[in-house]
Write a structure and sequence with these properties.
- Keywords: Hydrolase, Membrane, Metal-binding, Metalloprotease, Protease, Transmembrane, Transmembrane helix, Zinc.
- This protein is mainly α.
- The chain has 2 domains: 209 residues, no CATH class; 119 residues, no CATH class.
- It is built from 14 helices and 2 strands, in the order αααββααααααααααα.
- A two-stranded antiparallel ribbon has the order 1-2.
- The two termini are 42 Å apart.
């Protein structure tokens, strides 16, 4: 009966506080960092519920400083980001609102997190020396471990984004090492890292193939622009119609012949590319034929009713603009494929030295924190 009464009191207090302070929650949602504060509070509550409030505060603090390192680095490079969002038992994340111009810039942003993470637990070293409280030894160990884990050379972890300047092939080695670690020590977090890391590595590994597909698409779009310029000058469109219909039928047969056949990536890329080309040939022929038929049924307009001054068809002009915009987008993507991961030798050496130095310092602090905690077992 007593427990029931206490529970009723607590519920009443909770309802009162919610009614009085709901405006504060609304205000948080409207502020720029409202999402950060709300998600931080949720994470703190989750950690405190299981591990205690001291551990929860320390962990949220370490993660927060780590994310602030990314935000400061992004600001220095002029790259806008979203505020940090905390995810209980996963960590926190920020998203970039624009793509860095190259991998070296992305590595700079990634390095800012673990570097700030190193600074975050240095006060705990001093506090331990003064108080000899084992809690501060735990903070040292935890801070070093979290940031060292983030330096694993697997994208999308910070380490993977840093070593991409050296070579994205390192991602595969990091994935294999993580898979071996999971076999001996299963962990949901490691499974997630492996899953995201695999997709990131795969996208990078398939860029050459996508470049071939995009290059062919650009060729087809260039043909479209040439055809759109030629059509108004022709007196008869019968030959064009027949050519497009024949191209559509031929490409459709080729695509159908290879449809449903599973092709092994890398080993059968030539066959896969031929199938993709046939698909694009069919799609372009079908679109051009439909465009031609629609254009033919539209009356020709003349400037000031002068038959020698035909007004360019809005339909063809619009189709040409769409093709030009797509070509520009393809050129941008192809340029990124060719140049994003290119860096000078001096840049690579600097990145390698900074990466190894930070990893070494974090490793030493992790061992130091672990040795301190062993003293109190």
């Amino acid at each position: 009966m007593e427990k029931s009464r206490i529970r009723s009191y607590l519920i009443g207090i909770g309802v009162f506080l919610l009614a009085k302070f709901k405006w504060a929650l609304a205000l948080l949602k409207l502020t720029k960092f409202g999402g950060t504060l709300i998600s931080m509070g949720a994470s703190l509550g989750a950690y405190a519920l299981i591990y205690g409030w001291k551990f929860g505060v320390a962990l949220v603090y370490l993660i927060f400083v780590h994310e602030m390192g990314h935000l400061i680095a992004a600001k220095r490079k002029g790259i806008p980001t979203s505020p940090a969002i905390f995810i209980p038992f996963v960590g926190a994340l920020i998203s970039m609102k624009q793509q860095p111009r190259d991998a070296a810039t992305e590595a700079y942003l990634a390095y800012g997190g673990p570097l700030a993470g190193l600074i975050s637990f240095l006060p705990a070293v001093i506090l331990y020396r003064v108080t000899e409280d084992p809690f501060w030894a735990l903070v040292i160990f935890m801070g070093a471990l979290l940031n060292l884990f983030n330096l694993l050379p697997v994208s999308p972890l910070d380490g993977g984004r840093i070593v991409s300047v050296l070579s994205t092939k390192i991602w595969l080695a990091g994935l294999l090492a993580l898979i071996a670690l999971v076999i001996f020590s299963p962990s949901p977090i490691l499974f997630l890292v492996i899953l995201f890391g695999f997709f990131t590595w795969w996208n990078r590994a398939r860029e050459n193939y996508r470049s071939s597909v995009l290059t062919y698409e650009k060729e087809k779009l260039t043909e479209v622009l040439a055809a759109l310029r030629q059509w108004p000058t022709l007196t008869s469109m019968l030959e064009i119609k027949q050519s497009l219909a024949h191209a559509k039928e031929t490409a459709s047969r080729e695509e159908e012949a290879s449809k449903g056949k599973w092709l092994i990536p890398f080993l059968q890329d030539d066959e896969r590319l031929a199938r993709d080309k046939a698909r694009m040939d069919c799609e372009f022929a079908e679109r051009m034929l439909a465009l031609l038929l629609e254009w033919e049924h539209r009356p020709v307009e003349y400037a000031e009713s002068d038959p020698t001054r035909p007004i360019p068809s809005e339909l063809l002009v619009g189709a040409g603009q769409i093709a030009q915009d797509r070509i520009q987008a393809i050129d941008t993507e192809l340029h990124r494929y060719r140049t994003y991961y290119v860096a000078s030798a001096s840049t690579k050496w600097k990145v390698l030295a900074a990466y190894l130095l930070l990893a070494a310092v974090l490793s030493l602090f992790m061992l130091y924190g672990h040795r301190l905690m062993e003293l109190y077992r």
